[in-house]
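Hi all, posting the design record for the shared folder.

TITLE: backbone redesign
STEP: 1 of 1
STRUCTURE INPUT:
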């Protein structure tokens, strides 16, 4: 397995990560045994970076990841995401109360005292123009709830705006859409 630096974190992460969306079982049944075996096999192969989210199986994915990382002596970096639990999914929902509740739930699901990396989960574009949201995340770093934070984006505009905040450590590009350009 090859490893590379992850932003400014100082982490050396595997070039191949484990995407834990499928073990949430929302898009097809995955037994707990199969999910745990898949996680263990990936880690045995050298994977040390896992991507999950609080909405993957309504927390099931996080709980399974938490179970496996407790078994291991080596450090496994876990990125989880928050924000998609909002209904309706609006910029106003990205407030201190909701973000705190999301983080606390993920801490419980993963069985950890501090999240390695929390990413805002494709928030509405307006969120990137709300510095107070990033201030809440900065406060969570100060209180020890987060080590780092980042964003998952769908638009180039969102990525460019996000990197203006100095503590954004990661950009997860799920789908970048740009206007069609005539050639």
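Okay, here is what came back for every position:
SEQUENCE:
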């Amino acid at each position: 397995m090859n490893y590379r630096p992850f932003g400014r974190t100082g982490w050396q992460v595997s070039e191949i990560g484990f995407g834990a969306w499928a073990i949430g079982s929302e898009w097809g049944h995955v037994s707990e045994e199969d999910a745990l075996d898949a996680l263990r096999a990936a880690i045995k192969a050298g994977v040390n970076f896992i991507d999950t989210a609080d909405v993957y199986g309504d927390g099931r994915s996080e709980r399974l990841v938490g179970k496996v990382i407790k078994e291991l002596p080596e450090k496994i970096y876990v990125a989880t995401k928050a924000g998609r639990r909002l209904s309706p999914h609006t910029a106003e929902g990205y407030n201190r109360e909701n973000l705190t509740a999301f983080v606390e739930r993920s801490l419980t699901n993963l069985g950890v005292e501090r999240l390695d990396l929390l990413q805002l989960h494709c928030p509405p574009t307006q969120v990137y123009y709300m510095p107070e949201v990033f201030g809440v995340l900065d406060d969570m770093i100060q209180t020890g709830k987060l080590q780092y934070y980042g964003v998952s984006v769908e638009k180039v505009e969102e990525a460019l705006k996000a990197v203006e905040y100095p503590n954004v450590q990661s950009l997860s590009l799920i789908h970048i859409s740009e206007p069609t350009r005539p050639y």
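COMMENT: Helices lie at 32-44, 60-71, 96-110, 131-142, 156-162.
Let me know if anyone wants the other runs.
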